[in-house]
Amino acid sequence: MRQGPSWFNVTSLVLGFSFLYLPIVLLVIYSFNDSRLVTVWGGFSTRWYVELLDNQQLLDAAWVTVRVAFTSASVATVLGTLAAIVLTRSGRFAGRTLFSGMVYAPLVMPEVILGLSLLLLFVAIDQARGFWTIMIAHTTFAMCYVAVVVQSRLAGFDRSLEEAAQDLGCPPLRTFVSITLPLILPGVIAGWMLAFTLSLDDLVIASFTTGPEATTLPMKIYSQVRLGVTPEINAVCTILVAVVTVGVIATSIATKRHEVRRERDMRRAEAQA
Amino acid sequence: MTDRTDSGAAAAFAVPARKRKARRGAAGWLLIAIPYAWLLVFFLAPFFIVFKISLSQIAVAIPPYTPTIDLAQGWESLRSALAAFSFENYVWLTEDDLYWKSYLSSVWIAGVSTAITLLVGYPLAYGMARAPKAWRATLLMLVILPFWTSFLIRVYAWIGILKNEGLLNQLLMALGLIDDPLTILNTNIAVYIGIVYSYLPFMVLPLYANLEKLDTSLLEAASDLGCPPWRAFWTITVPLSVPGIVAGCFLVFIPAVGEFVIPDLLGGSDTLMIGKTLWTEFFANRDWPVSSAVAVILLLLLVVPIVLFQNQQQRSAEKDR
């Protein structure tokens, strides 16, 4: 059998990743285009970024979006982590099947259905729509993603550490805070980031659950895109791509370092024992 | 909470152990109740409301919808509401051919896109799984990264590439392959491209997870026995990767059926997809009962694939154990 990379594998990797990245790269390049015509190159310029700063509507929308994303990601992380613990740790309880069904269903449910159903709920309970309704809607579907991410972390978990702490008289809450949480922390952080970006990204559910005074950035981008491609939107998109990319890479490096340090500490502890 | 097996030394602490268990019982109950209650209120209850409104009389954009259910009046109110429910919204869905054409066309577009995504995603996942070990984490990261960047932005990026004076046509004309620009944007082809592009990570990740675990000694044995590589691929690798293929296909197909953003931005006015129809029915026509009925049917349409998917996940999880 042939060892090492074959020409076929290398070609499929190059083609596959070009397909994934070319559109994003082109978008970034054209955000620095001086021409108003999006597809004609008119020289390098940052004028669209400067014009963004004057676009108060867009900035307001961005601020609403960040606030919604931050709040819903935080609540979703707490709820999703609890759900993950319930799914991996609690044996049988009444309605377990319903519970796990409700955790997994939003992952595959079309957004139009989730959006419509939540809107009708808010109308039924006569709740004015706006910031809080979007936040509740985002929390609901994001907590399911958090649950799945944290669950995968809990699956490879050594429970003997928790048991040791409890045998030594550590109360459950303290065991959770000082043993369990640090061990699943990379999963919890990844879950929070996923929830944050999902909320930042969502157009459909926010459109259904919002009111007149809360417009999110995706809704703003969507309405402008429908009117035609504008270089300003390219600039907004580039900023978003940059923020997310830096965030994801930074966390993954931090997580990796944390893991490496932990492993080194473990090895040292073992060597001393 | 799962019981801890007390034995030997732990038995000496029997009393505190029992105390601990009682406390954990209350805490455990609370642990289950919080996320459970949230999902019941904000996920399950809304579906009942959708269902109820889909059976209500058409009343454009003015809730509440008759019949109303007054829980305070108990059974009497519920019974009269049940009697007043009508199926006229569902009858309407069968009368106007826009709806069933939308359903059929959604399933068709999602199916074709899923097949193309598999064709594009398999070589990529295979290449990743066969890459040197040191590279794999980076490659995996590269597949996940577009998933973190905005879906809307990634769909939007294709508009600049696919439109008549877009980059693709410019490139093809510069190469002399075509003389006149091709119309791709606002056709179903653009929708296929958009779905394949957006959902590619969903296909690649389960496939990669599956192919990476594949035992290469089987392939070595085949090649030692004189089996040519392509035949080994068809008779060994592909059958063993079926769970990954199935998982990937479901993950692409199910959300693609209800897709709204891609057909709306890349598709044309003749692109029918049920997610788009529901959106128009709701936001343009303001007909809430009919859009609820559309949602109920869409949900029923997806129940079978979702249940199949869950079964498949459960089976592969059991196999791993």
Task: Please specify the SSE layout and strand pairing.
The complex is a heterodimer of chains A (273) and B (321).
Chain A: H1 7-30, H2 47-54, H3 56-89, H4 96-108, H5 111-124, H6 131-155, H7 160-167, H8 172-201, H9 204-209, H10 217-226, H11 231-272
Chain B: H1 14-54, H2 75-84, H3 88-95, H4 97-129, H5 133-148, H6 151-162, H7 167-174, H8 188-213, H9 216-224, H10 229-240, H11 242-257, H12 261-266, H13 274-283, H14 288-320
Helix pairs in contact in B: 1-14, 3-14, 4-8, 4-11, 5-8, 6-8, 8-11, 9-10, 11-14, 13-14
Q: How much helix is in the residues of chain A?
A: over 70%
Spell out the helices and strands of chain B N to C. HHHHHHHHHHHHHH
Outline type of chain A: globular
User: What proportion of the residues of chain A form beta strands (DSSP E)?
Assistant: under 5%
Order of helices and strands of chain A: HHHHHHHHHHH
Oligomeric form of this entry?
heterodimer
Give me the Rg of chain A, rounded. 23 Å
